[in-house]
Structures are given as structure tokens and as C-alpha cells.
Amino acid sequence: MSGYRLRDGGVVDRTRPLSFTWDGTRYTGLAGDTLGSAMLANGLGPVARGFKYHRPRGVMTAGPEETGALVTLGRGARREPNAKAPAVELFEGLEATGQNAWPSVRFDLGRVNDLMGRFFSAGFYYKTFFGITGRGTWEWMQFEKLIRRAAGMGRAATPEDSVSDADVYDVVHDFCDVLVVGAGPSGLAAAAEAAGRGLDVMLVEQDFALGGRLVGTGETVEGEDADAWIAGRAAALGGVRVLTRTTAFGLYDTNVVGLYERLAEHLPDADPALPRAALRIVRPGRVVLATGAIERPIAFGNNDRPGVMLAGAMERYAARWGVGPGSRAVIATTNDSGYAAAARLASAGIEAVVLDAREKPGPATEACMAAAEAAGAEVRLGTVPVEVEGAAKVEGLAIGRAVEGGEAGTMVTERERVLRADCVGTSGGWSPVIHLVAHRGVKPVWDAGEG
If pLDDT is split at 50, 70 and 90, which confidence band does 438 have? Predict the structure, then answer.
């Protein structure tokens, strides 16, 4: 995958380079990067392997919803497996390695599982390894060790490694009138409104920056540039307790919320006497969920190849981190948001083609289409992705049209041609993120643009 740093754009500090290592090789990112954006900027791929078949995986999203780019951070007692690269804040000296691969992520002998996939149907091992020698359960338990090792994920440090976690962790009990989860546009507005009414407010955000999907976009919000609007909202929070790098992971009886706050994980030379992280047990009067929405992918052949991403993630990488996912992008969409991603990439000098599955767009879509075409993107209506070309990365995309199949109500795709591409973005619509169970006293607030 030919990712690269754009000449301008983004809110990273281009005067502050940060070095990090990936699988023992040193690379350079910028202050404000995530590990995911730094990987894309350096053209790294694949960066992970699939769980069972060890197919190559790349960065697919721009946040914690990532399922492909799972890596191991650190070493020794501080080794942390299964970290999501787009959600890891880059810092000087960060060490990351691939996992679930041997001898390396780039060349993984476990890929033989994919080549023999037709023989590895779901549950095949339960049926196969019980009767080879006739020893039943004992026999299965011996093979199980090998199967778990081949189909495992990252490996955490254990006492068997003769290392122990020397870090300090804290537990904090908190109270507030209103707890706002998510500091995107809706969360910032909700926190400011509650604080303006004299309430004790706590605002938590798992990212290290406030603003959600608005960061770096340059959009106009209430007559202001997006970044200026975010700064103004943040300044107006006054006595609101703002906790960045903090994840709300659960809502329990009597309106108790669990938070995990990362205090020193992003510091290269943290004081060992300070806690690395804190578990916060918060008892708020009310909870506001401003957790935004997650973009849905689209199913087609080889849609797990490195270089296939969510369209909104492509847009965010260009806007916030000044990183392009490639040089020739195809955006497959079923809704209007795909056009915004194409316009952003085209404006940054990346060739972009939009495949809209809809044959006849409405007036709102026509306006989005016109904006994308004005930026330099090509638009193809009634066209869908069929299959990605390339074994280890995107080398092209076969496209076609959806037509009625042989059975009533079914649709099939007819392959028409192959477009030259090194990255593919998909947008199948948006799903609100309500990751805490609905509960009395909880008010969900979301905006489809806050992915």
C-alpha cells in the first residue's frame, strides 16, 4: 500500500518528528499522530494477520472500532497485546510489533491456512482430532495446544516470562451531576449546556483530542471554522472536569459508570512513581451518551485486503493527520457521505472515483455529487464493487452493476471492468454507537457525522 504524508493539511505538528519502531525497524511520525496514521504515512502494510486464515490485514478505520490492525506494544512486563493501531497515541520511542504471525507479519507461514481454507470449515478440528489415534478427549487436548497457538492473537506477559508488572495503577471514586461520554460536537455542546445550568459536569473522551470527526476538517460550524469552534467550546467548559484518553466501558446498577483513564501510557519517560492508569468508578446523577456513529462496511470479494478502509476513515486521515491512504482511491458508497470522502481526497491531490450503488440520486445527493466533481472526483452511478485485485494489497478493483438474480427478490453483480486503484473506501451507512446499556437516567445523543 502506497500511503504517504500529504504536503499540507492536518493538525499534526510538522516541526516535531517522533521516532517509533515497527518490527524492529525505525520509522518517523509527527506529534499528534496515532500509530495508525504514522503507519499509513510510512506506507506500512500488511500490519497484521487474520485470526484463523492469517490473511493480510491493514489499517481499516481511524478509531477504536478497528478490527484488523491489532498490534503488540512495548516489551517485557509492559508488553500489551491486541492494541488497536488507530487508537494508539504516537510518542517518542514507541515500540510496536506484529502478532499472530511467524516469522513475521510480512511473510507469515500461517498463510497456508488460507490456501487450504476449503478443508478448514467451522468446527472441523472438533470432528477431526478426536479420532486419529482413538484416544478421544486426551487426543484432542494435545492438538488443541497447537491449534490455539496457530489461531491465537497477541500474547501478554505472564509470570512464566520471569517478569512482573512494576507499574502502579489507581482506583478513584467520583461523583457528578452529569457525565457526558464523548467529546465530539454533540458532547461538547451537551457539556457546555449542562455546565451553563450550574451542574457539576464530567466530560470523558477516549481520544487525546477534543472535537471528534470535526478536527482538521475546516468545516463551518455556527459561522466559525471547525477547529476554532472546538477551541471556543472547550474554553467555555469552565469548571467542567474534562478527562481525555479515558474510555467508558460499562454502565452498572444504580447508574454506576466504569471509566479507564490512561495517565502515563503515552509518556516516553513517565515517572515510575506515577500511576500508569486509573480505574474510575463514577456515580453520576445523569449520563449523556454522545458517542457518535460508526460507518458500516460493504461486502464484496477480498474486502479485507490491506488498502480497503472505511471511506470516513480515509477522510479523517487526510483532514486530521494529513495522510493519504494511497494515490488512486475508489470510494464505494450507498449514501451521501461517500462523496465528502472523495472530495477531501481529490482536493488533496489523490485521484478519486465514486461508485454509488444508487441509480437515481435525489436533490441532496446531486449537490454532494457536484461538490465531489468540482474537487476533481469521478462519479459512477448504479455501480458496485465486485472484487479486489491483488494478493497482499489492493492493486485494482473489479466493478459491476447489481441486477436481478434468478430468484425473486435476489440481486447479483455482473463484473464489467477493473479500475486501477491502490486503496478502496467503503461506506454502507452509519450505525449509532450506544456501547453502554440503556438505563434509567441515561440519555443517548448522537449525530451521524460523529463517527
Answer: very low
